[in-house]
Structures are given as structure tokens and as C-alpha cells.
């Protein structure tokens, strides 16, 4: 319990520091949001009034605490370009990104756990070598290229699945699932290849442990011994890598959403950057950073729960 409390405290402090870093980074970027909102023909008087309306004429500390106070209440401010509230847009876009990342991770786990385990148990045999070679090839393929290839095969040639677009699940579940297949595969195949190699290494290390040889000497066959005594120990390093993969999926979703025209956080981020809507960019980056920190926190807690050696007793 002590380890979990300590990790919770580190998570809270990390959130505070991350918010300062994100705000400071956006504050030092060149460009005037008022000038972007009004255009190059705006008069100095109108620029000054707009900066005052945006709160840009206040000290940076006052701007930070005003922004964070709003964020803690779910108010991310209003877009400098469109004037629309940023918070509701973030919630809608975050839902799309979470569906994509969750489906991509599911595909990665479905591929990595069985194939990584088989590659370890068939070590130095032809099937194990083939799985290792395919996983190495998958690691070398970027997610956006995998998406383009999948679109070419399943959308353009076979016409089984749509090439892009988004249908909310509350409107049509069938179309929602059909539209999610190719983006999830483009993310999941690449990350599944990376995760397969980690699963293989973890299972190989477990197969050489004394307790597993003891279990086999007592009459357990190799696969039952591995399933009963080995997989939980092999899961300890994989859980850490799984957290890193989730953060990688979040970053990869930025490009994949663009390839498949999905209205997620990645598309919103690219649109906001192109229009120099710095307040929207600031909110999106903060949400992504919080998501990464939250994933790392959950992984730390799961690591403590999976490995009894890390638990602290009274």
C-alpha cells in the first residue's frame, strides 16, 4: 500500500509540473494570438482590445492560474480563431481517440501474447524463427504506411471496408465497427510486432528459471507448467512495456487519424497548429500529457500488484 501511495503522490506532482511546462512552452512560442484572430489588417487599437479580451496583457503567472483554474473546472477557454468553447470539442475528440487507441491495443495484445509465447517455446525452430522475422518486419513498418496498404487492399481493391470516416457508436454500431477496423489494424499490427518481441524475451527468460524446471520435473508438461507458473512472472516486464506501447499508440493515433479522416484529438491538434490557435493547442497537449502520465501511473500500480516483491507491508 505504501508503494501505491508514493506513486500516487508522484503522479499528482507530475501533473502539476507538466501543466507548468505546457503553459510555459506555449507562452514562449512566437506569434500574437490577437493578430492571428484579427488578421494582418487589424488596427493597433483593435489589437490591444483583443489582447485585453483574451487576457494576454496580464502577467504570465496570472494567465497560468486563470487557465488552470478553468481547466480544473472543465473550462479550457475559447478558441482564438473560431471563438468556440474548447472543452466540449476536447471531450468529443478524446472519445474518438480513445476508441482508436483501445482497439489498436486490443489488436496488439491478440497478436503479441500468443505469437510471442509460441516464438519463445519454438526457440531455434523454424516456426519460432519465422515469427521473429515477421515481427521484425512489422517493427520496421510505420503505422501510417500500414494504414495506406490496408486501405489499398481492403477498401480500394476488395471493397470490404470503408477507407475512412467516422460513425459514432450510438448512431450505427455496425458502421462504427466497420470504420474502426482498418485504423485499429494499422495501429495494432505495428505495435503488436513490437510487443511480440518483448513477450518472446520475457517468456524465454521465464523458461530458463529453476522453479519452472522443478514444476516440469514433478510431472507437469511444458505448456501447462508455463501457463500455471510462468506467465505471471513473464508478465512483470511486459506490463512496463505495455505502458510504453500505450503512449506510443497515442502518438501514432495523431497520424493515423489523419490518414483515415477520423475526428480525434490528433486531427484537432494538426488543425489547431496549422491555424496557430495556440490556446487549443495548449489544451490538447495538456490532455495528451495527462493521458500519458495516467497510463504510466496505472502501469506503476499494476506493476506493484503483479509483482509481490514490490509490495510493502506494515
Walk me through the structure.
It is a single chain. With 314 residues, the chain is mainly alpha-helical. Helices cover 77% and strands 0% of the residues. Helix 5 packs antiparallel against helix 6 (126-140), helix 5 (86-121) packs across helix 8 (173-207) and helix 11 (265-274) runs antiparallel to helix 12 (278-306). The N and C termini lie close together (9 Å). Residues 94-299 form the ABC transmembrane type-1 domain.
Question: What are its keywords?
Answer:
transport, 12 helices, mainly alpha, BPD_transp_1_N, globular, 314 residues, transmembrane helix, MetI-like fold, 2 domains
Q: Which structural category fits the helices and strands?
A: mainly alpha
Characterize the largest beta sheet: strand count, sense, and whether it forms a barrel.
Answer: none
Count of runs of 4 or more consecutive helical residues: 12
Helix percent band: over 70%
Query: Which regions are unreliable across 5 or more consecutive residues at pLDDT < 50?
Result: none
String of helices and strands: HHHHHHHHHHHH
Radius of gyration: 24 Å
From the N-terminal CA to the C-terminal CA, the straight-line distance is 9 Å
CATH topology of the largest domain, by name, is MetI-like fold
In CATH terms, the superfamily of the largest domain is MetI-like
Integer average pLDDT: 82
Q: Return the domain count.
A: 2
- What best-fitting shape do the alpha-carbon axes yield? globular
How many E-type strands? 0
CATH class of the largest domain: Mainly Alpha
CATH architecture verdict of the largest domain: Orthogonal Bundle
Proportion in β-strands: under 5%
Amino acid at each position: 500500500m505504501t508503494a501505491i501511495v508514493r506513486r500516487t503522490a508522484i503522479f499528482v506532482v507530475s501533473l502539476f509540473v507538466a501543466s507548468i511546462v505546457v503553459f510555459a512552452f506555449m507562452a514562449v512560442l512566437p506569434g500574437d494570438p490577437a493578430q492571428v484572430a484579427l488578421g494582418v489588417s487589424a488596427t493597433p487599437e483593435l489589437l490591444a482590445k483583443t489582447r485585453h479580451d483574451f487576457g494576454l496583457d496580464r502577467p504570465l503567472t496570472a494567465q497560468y492560474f486563470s487557465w488552470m483554474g478553468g481547466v480544473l473546472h472543465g473550462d479550457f477557454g475559447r478558441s482564438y480563431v473560431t471563438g468556440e468553447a474548447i472543452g466540449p470539442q476536447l471531450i468529443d475528440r478524446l472519445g474518438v481517440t480513445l476508441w482508436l487507441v483501445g482497439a489498436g491495443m486490443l489488436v496488439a495484445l491478440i497478436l503479441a501474447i500468443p505469437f510471442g509465447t509460441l516464438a519463445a517455446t519454438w526457440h531455434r525452430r523454424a516456426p519460432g524463427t519465422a515469427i521473429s522475422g515477421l515481427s521484425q518486419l512489422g517493427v520496421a513498418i510505420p503505422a501510417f504506411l500500414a494504414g495506406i496498404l490496408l486501405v489499398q487492399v481492403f477498401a480500394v481493391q476488395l471493397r470490404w471496408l470503408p477507407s475512412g470516416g467516422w460513425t459514432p457508436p450510438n448512431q450505427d454500431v455496425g458502421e462504427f465497427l466497420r470504420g474502426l477496423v482498418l485504423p485499429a489494424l494499422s495501429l495494432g499490427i505495428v505495435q503488436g510486432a513490437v510487443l511480440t518481441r518483448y513477450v518472446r524475451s520475457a517468456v524465454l527468460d521465464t523458461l530458463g528459471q529453476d522453479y519452472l524446471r522443478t514444476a516440469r520435473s514433478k510431472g507437469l508438461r511444458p505448456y501447462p507448467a508455463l501457463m500455471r507458473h510462468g506467465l505471471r512472472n513473464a508478465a512483470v516486464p511486459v506490463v512496463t512495456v505495455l505502458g510504453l506501447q500505450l503512449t506510443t499508440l497515442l502518438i501514432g493515433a495523431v497520424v493515423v487519424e489523419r490518414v483515415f479522416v477520423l475526428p480525434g484529438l490528433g486531427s484537432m491538434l494538426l488543425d489547431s497548429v496549422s491555424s496557430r490557435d495556440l490556446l487549443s493547442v495548449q489544451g490538447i497537449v495538456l490532455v495528451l500529457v495527462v493521458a500519458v502520465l495516467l497510463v504510466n501511473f496505472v502501469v506503476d500500480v499494476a506493476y506493484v500488484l503483479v509483482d509481490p516483491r514490490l509490495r510493502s507491508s506494515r
